[in-house]
Automatic annotation (TrEMBL):
GO biological process, one term: regulation of cell shape
Protein name (database record): serine-type D-Ala-D-Ala carboxypeptidase
Segment forming the signal sequence: 1-20
Domain of life: Bacteria
A single MF term (Gene Ontology): serine-type D-Ala-D-Ala carboxypeptidase activity
Reactions accelerated catalytically: Preferential cleavage: (Ac)2-L-Lys-D-Ala-|-D-Ala. Also transpeptidation of peptidyl-alanyl moieties that are N-acyl substituents of D-alanine
UniProt entry keywords in alphabetical sequence: Carboxypeptidase, Cell shape, Cell wall biogenesis/degradation, Hydrolase, Peptidoglycan synthesis, Protease, Signal
Annotated metabolic or biological route of this protein: Cell wall biogenesis; peptidoglycan biosynthesis
Protein function: Removes C-terminal D-alanyl residues from sugar-peptide cell wall precursors.
Keyword Cytoplasm: no
InterPro entries on file: Beta-lactam/transpept-like (IPR012338), Peniciliin-bd_prot_C_sf (IPR015956), Peptidase_S11 (IPR018044), Peptidase_S11_C (IPR012907), Peptidase_S11_C_sf (IPR037167), Peptidase_S11_N (IPR001967)
Active site positions, chain numbering: 52, 55, 112
């Protein structure tokens, strides 16, 4: 009887787990930010209209300019007639109105302002057309093979398409490389123009889902209801993408379903060697040994059931020949759970060891000769 009950319990658990990752949207994806691991996918490469989720690329290029030093938050952006003509979600910029980059970013992130997105694009590239060229170039660099951008804000244009997978890629790049964007994407309510313009975030998860860090909603009649939703708990940040949802509530419900599944099922663990790593002998080097270190990619995404007692084993080269460059591979740290190998992480040279010259070698040879005599 106990065995039957246990089996019934296991079947029930599997059923609940399966239901936990069912989404109503026709296309969806869940990705872990740090490793880029896809945890759930449904028609993830189907080319669909993204509506204002497009603005993630506009935000990415803007933040790259800021972090690269070619744009400042306090710089002033002037609204052009073209930017003011966008329609849709906007803050009703007036021709010639001047706002700072900081204010423009707030308007784009919080209320999905099309006019501000285009104004930023024109400020950065001279025209929206030139900016769109940059968007598509950056998309190609990120491996967004399902994407073609036609504008900077996501208003409906024939051929303006992307996929859930590609949206996750650009969302990851933005959240991973430019954490300051959270200054805007986590705002629930704010104002502009000295309090005259009220802003309420189109992403309701900011208000109602614990750990939300962003990111961007979008909706048109053709695109349906879309979102790239990011949230962080216990040091792990997830990206949930929903495309072509039937209603706004279903869009948010689907995103929460994916995020809940990810946080309940996985954890991010930083690997640290259990014991100090021994140095590796160096032949014909200016020093006798080189110290191995664990590479920067030392975080593992694990099923929570496998985050208990992990085993480690270290394999190092018996020796290496100079010259040794920083980052040269010296061995492997293998992480296991029971008999299962979870990861093989590279151990790298943490320092440079040049090859010894004849002039440097001569004193060593003379010392050895004296000892032999």
């Amino acid at each position: 009887m106990k065995k039957i009950l246990a089996l019934m319990g296991a079947v029930l658990l599997l059923s609940v787990s399966a239901r936990a990752v069912e989404v109503s949207a026709p296309s969806a994806l869940l990705m872990e930010k740090e490793t880029g691991t896809v945890l759930f996918a449904k028609n993830e490469h189907e080319k669909l209209e993204p509506a204002s989720v497009t603005k993630i690329m506009t935000l990415l290029l803007t933040m790259e300019a800021i972090d690269g030093g070619t744009l400042r938050y306090e710089d002033t952006v002037t609204a052009s007639p073209h930017a003011c003509s966008m329609g849709g979600s906007q803050i009703w910029l007036k021709e010639g109105e001047r706002l700072t980059v900081d204010e423009m970013l707030k308007a784009v992130c919080v209320v999905s302002a099309n006019d501000c997105a285009v104004a930023l694009a024109e400020h950065l590239a001279g025209s929206e057309e030139s900016f769109v060229e940059r968007m598509n170039r950056r998309a190609a660099e990120l491996g967004m093979n399902d994407t073609t951008f036609k504008n900077a804000c996501g208003l409906p244009v024939e051929g303006h398409v992307t996929s859930a997978y590609d949206i996750a890629l650009m969302s990851r790049e933005l959240m991973l490389r430019h954490p300051d964007i959270r200054r805007y994407t986590t705002v629930w309510m704010d104002t502009l123009r000295d309090g005259a313009s009220s802003l309420v975030n189109t992403n309701k998860l900011v208000r109602f889902y614990d750990g939300t860090t962003g990111l961007k909603t979008g909706s048109t009649n053709a695109a349906g209801y879309c979102i790239s939703a990011t949230a962080e708990r216990d040091g792990m940040e997830l990206i949930a993408v929903i495309l072509k949802g039937k209603t706004s509530p279903e869009r948010f419900a689907d995103a929460q379903t994916l995020l809940n599944y990810g946080f309940a099922s996985y954890a991010l663990k930083t690997v640290i060697p259990d014991e100090p790593l021994p140095p590796v002998p160096v032949r014909l080097g200016t020093q006798a040994t080189v110290q191995p270190v664990l590479g920067e990619e030392n975080q593992l995404l694990l099923e929570k059931a496998k985050t208990g007692e992990l085993g480690q084993s270290v394999t190092l080269e018996p020796s290496v020949q100079a010259p040794v460059a920083v980052g040269d591979r010296l061995g492997t740290l293998t992480v296991t759970f029971g008999e299962e190998v979870l990861a093989e992480l590279p151990l790298l040279a943490g320092e440079e060891v040049p090859r010894i010259t004849f002039r440097q070698m001569l004193p060593r040879v003379l010392r050895i000769a004296c000892l032999v005599e």
